[in-house]
Amino acid sequence: MSPASPQFPLLLASVLFSLGLLGVLVRRNLLFVLMSIEIMINAAALAFVAAGSRWAQPDGQVMFLMVLTLAAAETSVGLAMLLQLQRRFRTLDTDAASEMRG
Amino acid sequence: MESTLYLEATVAVLATALAITNYNPLHALLYLIVSLLAVAMVFFSIGAPFAGVLEVIIYAGAIMVLFVFVVMLLNLGKATVDQERRWLHPRTWIGPGLLSAALLLELARILVRESTGVGVAARPIAATQVGMALYGPYLLAVELASMLLLAGLVTAFHLGRHE
């Protein structure tokens, strides 16, 4: 497989997304979970840009801008929730916030 | 030019793997920043320079600085000075440093030897085209993005206040 082929950036995006998913599943620290989510969002953005580059259209980069906006909003809300978790439970363990019952 | 894409991909995957397996939040953040820089260079290589610049400025710059600020906020205390002293050990920064050096060497090689700088893409997409598309058919999406940012701002302000 040649790197110039459009499959290569898509393969890279898949590997990065899998690593991010692994991080979300394995880590219990909320900070690392948020970082893994960032990795997954970034991998999705890479897939968008690679597809746009394959067809020589700017739409992929427009979607990259939207993904960037989403990531910024997600990070600000997630980090605010992380600060609240630290303030209330004195820990970053996500299992500590499991007291909500349906 | 194709070997550079391989190198960037290798650095990105290695840095990401080291970021999610690290115990120390700040060390993991260093690796994550290197990973984002490598992905930005992938963007440059596949002919999306505007996306690459935004990745460096907003992702590796603004969003990661937010993470670093929060980690600093959480670590207030007397142990911080000892921690800083331990963190300045070469063992801390040698890994991210080596990975960044690989990216820097590649950048220097491209600048010196291949001055066309078009990467592996046949036709790079300039920022002009992206801007035309953004404020043409995607105008509604831009408005929605601004509303999303406003919602994020209000939520972060509400969640982050002291009671």
Helix content of chain B: over 70%
Query: Helical stretch count of chain A?
Result: 3
- Give the N-to-C terminal Cα separation of chain A: 50 Å
Task: Name the shape of chain B in a single word.
Answer: flat
Oligomer: heterodimer
Tell me the span between the first and last alpha carbons of chain B: 56 Å
* Number of continuous helical runs of chain B: 7
Low-confidence stretches of chain B: none
Poorly predicted runs of chain A are: none
* Major sheet size, sense and barrel closure of chain A: none
Provide the gyration radius of chain A in Å: 17 Å
Beta strands of chain A, count: 0
Number of DSSP-assigned strands of chain B: 0
Which chain pair has the greatest contact?
A-B, 57 and 58 residues
Main beta sheet of chain B: strand number and arrangement? none
> Residue-averaged pLDDT of chain A, rounded?
87
Brief descriptors of the model:
heterodimer, A: 102 residues, mainly alpha, 75% helix, elongated, B: 163 residues, 7 helices
Overall description:
The complex is a heterodimer of chains A (102) and B (163). Chain A is elongated, with a radius of gyration of 17 Å. The longest helix of chain A has 31 residues, at 59-89. Chain A is mostly helical and 102 residues long. Chain A has three helices and no strands. In chain A, α1 runs antiparallel to α2 (30-54) and α2 (30-54) runs antiparallel to α3. Chain B has helices at residues 2-20, 25-45, 49-74, 79-87, 90-113, 127-134, 139-160. Chain B is flat. The mean pLDDT of chain B is 84. At the A-B interface, α1, α2 and α3 of A face α1, α2, α3, α6 and α7 of B.
